Amino acid sequence: xxxxxxxxxxxxxxxxxxxxxxxxxxxxxxxxxxxxxxxxxxxxxxxxxxxxxxxxxxxxxxxxxxxxxxxxxxxxxxxxxxxxxxxxxxxxxxxxxxxxxxxxxxxxxxxxxxxxxxxxxxxxxxxxxxx
Amino acid sequence: xxxxxxxxxxxxxxxxxxxxxxxxxxxxxxxxxxxxxxxxxxxxxxxxxxxxxxxxxxxxxxxxxxxxxxxxxxxxxxxxxxxxxxxxxxxxxxxxxxxxxxxxxxxxxxxxxxxxxxxxxxxxxxxxxxx
DNA sequence: CTTGACGTTGACGTAAACGTAAAGCACGAT
DNA sequence: ATCGTGCTTTACGTTTACGTCAACGTCAAG
Lengths: 131, 131
Known about the structure:
2 copies of one chain form a homodimer. Chain A folds into 2 domains: 1-64, Multidrug-efflux Transporter Regulator, Chain: A, Domain 2 (Orthogonal Bundle); 79-131. By secondary structure, the first copy, chain A, is mainly α. In chain A, a hairpin with a 2-residue loop joins strand 1 and strand 2 (43-45). In chain A, strands 1-2 form a two-stranded antiparallel sheet. Chain A is built from 5 helices and 2 strands, in the order ααββααα. The interface between A and B is large, with 41 and 41 residues. The structure holds a DNA duplex. Chains A, B: This is MerR family DNA-binding transcriptional regulator.
């Protein structure tokens, strides 16, 4: 589906299908102000921007962020230049998110290392049992 | 606090303090079977094993796993050798967790890269504004 | 011996993130 | 004309992860 001026658009069902979520989920994100699809009459029309934001939301969820925090993160992507105070605030936010993300990455890597240990123990046990 | 045989133990308040969580949280984890402190009469006595599991639970939470999944993960650490079927099941579980963890790590790294871009744009805007 | 400090068990409350009907337009096809 | 398909809103239900009393036990100190 494309709009008269050549930009692609999506229906709620198409996006739900593509991202393997329900339309209810998409509506929920809209209620929370995470996406703001156009309305043609009563019907929602999703543009590329909405699709992108949806993808960002889902990635945020996979990482484990709450929707609330996800909004502040993806809103940073869209931020207009603005004034100096705004920019400094944004830089602060970025710094905070970075700390969180790096903490999470460290936790994940530690867990991966430990899983490797357990796995090796498993293989060792299997070798023992085979005799 | 130490037990007569020289092993250190903790009270619920000590662990709550140390990990900066509430006693209610600890009790919640016990209700879900994530930790099983000893009972001396009615009172909970936490051993090193409980403390370790608590730390693992909190790390799992930081990563973003639900408590349910956290249990299956930390239970793997304690798994006794067992029989061949068990071991293969455990290896399967490990493989699944690894996939999840690597997906999350990739998501985090992607987000970190994008934040860096936004950050650079911020700095550029600031430089522009200074003239 | 009563007063705290710390422990315990219910049991109801709440916030987040949707699930799940129920009921109703709109519109193209039969 | 009505039937199905897809979209809509309204609104209550559910799960997870605890928060928050309330009410009571226990033990050392004053």
